[in-house]
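Please fill in the sequence for the structure shown.

STRUCTURE ENCODING:
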């Protein structure tokens, strides 16, 4: 077995959304549109469209009670590779307002939407990353990165 190179980590986040009002439905549609916008590359007009600017980067954190959750491993900066939107996760059904034609967030709005987001990290993680993460969780996640690195060096458990 030959080792060729490490790979960028990929992961998927799945959500099922059930908007309960017109306002929530409009927020869900706005969120989907923003994610699609930030997932797409940008065309540079000054170069006649020959060059693309990479899509937006995301820094994802998992929160619990208003603080970063130490029980879920950290994710490095990543890009959104693809978005899958399923407007009929349980078979198609839509909200109906009697006497109204289809309108944003009202008649015709799907009852449920499954959103799958596929991310890829932009940094290859090495053993040093895991050492710092382990030390950060040991000493508290609100410790700064320089402090965490210093604590990692001092930590006898890794040497």
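FILLED IN BY: designer on duty
SEQUENCE:
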């Amino acid at each position: 077995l030959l080792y060729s190179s490490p790979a960028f980590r990929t992961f998927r986040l799945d959500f099922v959304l059930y908007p309960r009002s017109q306002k929530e439905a409009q927020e869900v549609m706005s969120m989907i549109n923003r994610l699609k916008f930030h997932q797409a590359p940008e065309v540079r007009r000054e170069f006649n469209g020959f060059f693309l600017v990479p899509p937006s980067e995301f820094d994802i954190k998992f929160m619990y009670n208003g603080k970063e959750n130490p029980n879920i491993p950290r994710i490095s900066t990543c890009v959104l590779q693809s978005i899958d939107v399923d407007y009929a996760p349980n078979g198609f059904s839509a909200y109906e307002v009697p006497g109204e034609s289809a309108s944003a967030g009202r008649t015709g709005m799907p009852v449920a939407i499954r959103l799958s987001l596929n991310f890829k990290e932009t940094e290859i993680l090495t053993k040093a990353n895991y050492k710092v993460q382990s030390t950060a969780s040991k000493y508290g996640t609100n410790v700064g990165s320089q402090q965490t690195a210093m604590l990692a060096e001092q930590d006898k458990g890794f040497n």
